[in-house]
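Worked example 2:
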Amino acid sequence: MTLLAVEALGVAFEDGRGGAIQVVEDVGFRVDAAESVALVGESGCGKSVTARALLGLLEGARITGRVTLGGVSVLDAAPAARQRLRGREVGFVFQDPGRALNPVLPVGEQIAERLRRHGDLDRHAAARRAVALLGEVGIPDPEARARAWPHQLSGGMRQRVVVAIALACDPALLIADEPTTALDVTIQAQILALIRERQQARGMGLLLISHDLGVVAQTVDRVLVMYAGQIVEEAPVLDLYAAPRHPYTRGLLRSVPGLQAAEPGGRLYAIPGTVPSPRDFPRSCRFQARCDRARARCGEAPVALDVQGARRVRCLFPEEGAP
């Protein structure tokens, strides 16, 4: 059953001169119930903007396309209905826990507030559940930590508090933007195990945004590769790692130490160049200037094509990546 469906999503911001800068274009994908999907790519590719646009969390943005959650059109919903969806049906783990938490409320109260507003619990039940959630995400002495202010916690603990808030109401969908960045490997594994447990218990869907391709390989069913505001490849995780079809995907995987053979001389591989600014997105293939297999025909703008049924590639020569 499809839980989240995204069709032709576009995001543009005003440029201050009466025009608009298109930062995300023609993004489409789905997340099924109990399925884990990863959105990967370099910084500046548009991953976090895409995630926030799904719930209408971008101020001053022009969002186009269609986003449905459980059959409900999110972008067309009234503000109050959208807020209920965000609180009860969707949990969001923000990338920066320092900015996501209220600095003038104890962290336990912030979790309890979510439970009272969207979980229909009274004050005492919400407080007890907040302490239990802190324990579930691996925070020691959760009763004492529930009374702590955000600035009294380490970055890793703040990250775990944000995860606890996102999971508090047992959402149908969890959108997690770099949820394990500030965590050591032991706590990272504990958080990922907790997410998998919630998926098995309730059929929760997961949209994971991550730079860590090792975590992605262990966690998700399908991978979406984003470059310069577009999805350039989508495939089941094992197929993508075994035989990436888009040259950008191949470059990402070659850049992971230990995942691919080292370059001559033992040097790590790096994709040449940088992601172009949205102001400078070319009308041709957006990866052409950095691609080691570019040719004259790459001056055309590629469209996403189905390859082997379960995967899509936005490239004019996807057969070159075939195993």
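Residues 187 and 279 are 40 Å apart (CA to CA). Residues 185-202 form the longest helix (18 residues).
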